[in-house]
Write a structure and sequence with these properties.
The complex is a heterodimer of chains A (about 300) and B (about 350). Helix content of chain A is about 70%, strand content about 0%. Chain A has about 300 residues and is mainly alpha-helical. Chain A has a two-stranded antiparallel sheet with strand order 1-2. The mean pLDDT of chain A is about 85. With about 350 residues, chain B is mainly alpha-helical. Chain B has helices at about 5-25, 30-55, 60-75, 80-85, 90-95, 100-120, 125-145, 165-185, 190-200, 200-205, 210-235, 245-260, 265-285, 300-315, and strands at about 290, 295. The chains are: A mainly alpha (about 300), B mainly alpha (about 350).
Chain lengths: ~300, ~350
Amino acid sequence: MLQTALNALALGSVYALMAVGIGLVFGVLRLVNFAYGQLIMAGAFSLAVTSEHGWPDWASLLTCFAVVIALSLLMEVAVFRPLRDAPPATMLVATFAIAFLLQAIALMKFGSLGKVATIFPGLFDPVADSGRFATVRWVTIVAIALGVVAVVGLTVLLDRTSVGLHMRAAAADFRTARLLGVNANRVITLAVVLSGVLAAAVSVILVIQTPLVVPSFALRDTIIVLVGVVVGGLDRLWTATLGGFSIGVATSIFTDKLPTDATVYVDSFVFGLVILVLLLRPSGLFAPRSARPVERA
Amino acid sequence: MRLGSLVGFVVPALLVVAVAAVGSFVSSANEIYFLTALVDVVIVVGLYVFVGNSGVVSFGHISFVAVGAFGAGLATIPTDVKPNILPDLFPFIRDHSIGNVESLLLAAALGGVFAFLVGLPLMRLSGLAAGIATFAVLGITHNVLLYYTKIGPGAGTMTSIPETTHLTQALVAALIAIAVAWLYQLSPLGRLVRASREDAAVAQAVGVSVHRQRLWAFTLSGAICGFAGGLLVHQLGTITAEGVYLDLTFLTLAMLVVGGAGSLLGAVVGALLVSGLDSFLVNAENGVHVLGVSFDVPSGASLVVLGALMALILVLRPAGLTGGREARLPRLRRERPQEPRPATGGTS
């Protein structure tokens, strides 16, 4: 029971981190970044390659963050910026293309069998030798703690700093915010960098949990989180985050509690639940009752 | 019906006829590329009926292709081998088989019904959310096909499916799909859903039920995609759950967007071009000679080139190669300087 709850919290935290990363960029660019999972994959491969060369853990960690942040900035400059005024459908498909491209590159470079990353192996150990904590791993605790820290940190950043105010203004109405003197490129760059930092953190946690890094690493998680973000409500950062958290909790509980012969159908149960929820609350699970799903042009 | 709008059907139709005609002259080893291109046209036209007309990007349409492909495949494996290769099937499926054309109709029906059922809840979402939520459909379809051995091969490969999709049948199918898409977008229903694409709020204000119109488009396009799945499985002779998942989703969306998601012409042009390019690149990985120049491309590079090219086209031409415009008759008079754009233009 304790373990199921902790697992659920941990996966919920990881998915919440991813949801924040996707939601931040969506807030300022109105762009759903499908390539988010491939950022995580790139971070995981950089961990695998550096640990294979015997780099110390801290160096691997730094490289991972550097690679992921550089890659997100590259995406912003090369693809998001030229497409800023394009129809949303085009932007969506463009990020899908980037996702596909990055995965194809990983497949060509590292092969489909992937690499093994050995980083912070101690974190995979159980918390205690015996007793009820014997099946709880350190990485679970770290994931939960990181989720809490990230959400608190972002709340402080968005609520208490002027750049946070700019980001919230840009998220609410980008054009008006620009007219009122918000530096668009600075806000967007900050959002992209922050979402890159979150992606790198997620890749570290995921790599500790599943050290085998393949080109489709984190792909399934990304799809689940994207759907979760929609279920929560894309228009606000906190509903998107809650959506990611909830779908993580649901996925983890289904994984732990389904009978053994049904565990392969976890995805079907999760997505089935999603469709059920959308049937009842089309405007998002956490959206205010008054909110109607009318599109913004 | 005005002569001008007929051009919107004739030009895409002539394109596929031309491709089929060229395909009938090449060697039988190369014929497969033309066949693939025609089947791709049917899938992309199916996708276009929803994405192009409603303006909502769907990532779930390959589930309708998958349902059609598995349905048509299962229904046509000869009953004398079916129990041996797929012993776990439901007895009803295991002991009955139907003909080729019936299986294509079955595939279309399966795709349409499935799209209608999942569209009921999903089409109530706002456009962007609806598009992403269709991922849930793709996830469920893939998950079930991958593990449920009572309705298919599970993680294995479904084999012994009659390879009945040849050039004539693929051409007729592509023409049917183009005709259906063209008739739909000229019909009152098509115009209503296109109104909701241009401005959902205004369309709603003048009494268009955006939900209902999108649902019709989704259902029709699901049926065409199911039909395409039937063609696909009868072309390949084998099918796996992975074969109708993310890669095909990406490839078909790439075709649609590269051609220009706003027009039927764009769907057909994009499908033919990208399909040809894909076939060429896959070939190039095995070494290929074009006009005396030999290309040697490393393995796996075809996907990289395709992804990069698609991102490039999107950045340079966000509305696709056709710019989202249908084919039109050339004007006899000189164009007036400030002529308003036709109502079908633009993809936003």
